[in-house]
Amino acid sequence: MGLDDFMDVEPSSTDNTTEDVEKSNNQEESIVDNNYGPIGYESLEEYEDTVDKSIKLEGGLFKYNLPIFPVIENTDTYSTSARYREENMKRNLSCINVDKHILSDVPRELIMLDTGETDKNKCLETLSERFNQEAKPDTEVYVYFFGKIREIAKFAIGDSLTDSWSLKDKDHILKAIYDESYTQRFRKSDEVDSKYKHIDHIEPW
């Protein structure tokens, strides 16, 4: 999980015999065949050994569709760089970062994304239910950022394989990650109520 996982093997000498080259090629093919998908581990078991904790995420919020999403808690629960298995979806997450703040210092758009609400009072109500205590401006909170391991790795693969970002290449990569094209279809569809097509107004806090 550290830097060693990304280190390249030292290049072999240019004086290799044909036998050495064939042996090297066979070893490389074996490594490629055994790698566990886009994660970069030689086996599923080796990858699973890095995930030793579980996390339960509540609700079906849109933020869980993002490759990276926030979770605001009032307890020091998760550890940066640790990997967690999400109980409901059975997907693996990395805790990318955690910061301690008072609630009033957390950007409102982040609170909105975390709670799935845009109204200030509803946001505070949602956090109060989560915290089992009243959420106030001076409440100390921990802002966690989790990343979906496979999706993040796919972004990296997309960048590493695409030298020239043509519209076609970019569209293929985005569709492979989270079907961005569906957003456009949603806005253009005659079957969608017009009130949902231009949701861009939020009451001042």
Sheet with most strands: strand arrangement: 1-3-4-5-2
Question: Would you report the number of β strands?
Answer: 5
**Residue-averaged pLDDT:** 76
Number of helices: 7
Which residues form runs of ≥5 with pLDDT under 50?
2-18, 20-34
Q: According to CATH, what is the topology of the domain at 51-149? A: Archaeosine Trna-guanine Transglycosylase, Chain: A, domain 4
Q: Under the CATH scheme, which class of the domain at 51-149?
A: Mainly Beta
Helix content: 25-40%
Question: How is the biggest beta sheet arranged?
Answer: 5 strands, mixed
Cα end-to-end separation: 42 Å
Q: How would you explain this protein's 3D organization?
A:
This protein is α+β, with helices and mostly antiparallel strands. The chain has a domain at 51-149: Archaeosine Trna-guanine Transglycosylase, Chain: A, domain 4. The protein has helices at 18-34, 44-48, 108-115, 120-131, 149-161, 167-178, 181-188, and strands at residues 51-55, 68-73, 83-86, 92-102, 140-148. The protein has a 5-stranded mixed β-sheet. The longest helix has 17 residues, at 18-34. The radius of gyration is 22 Å and the shape is globular. The two termini are 42 Å apart.
Short description:
Helices cover 37% and strands 17% of the residues.
What brief labels describe this structure?
alpha+beta, globular, Archaeosine Trna-guanine Transglycosylase, Chain: A, domain 4, 5 strands, 205 residues, single chain
Architecture blueprint of SSEs:
Elements: H1 18-34, H2 44-48, E1 51-55, E2 68-73, E3 83-86, E4 92-102, H3 108-115, H4 120-131, E5 140-148, H5 149-161, H6 167-178, H7 181-188
Parallel strand pairs: 1-3
Antiparallel strand pairs: 2-5, 3-4, 4-5
Helix pairs in contact: 5-6
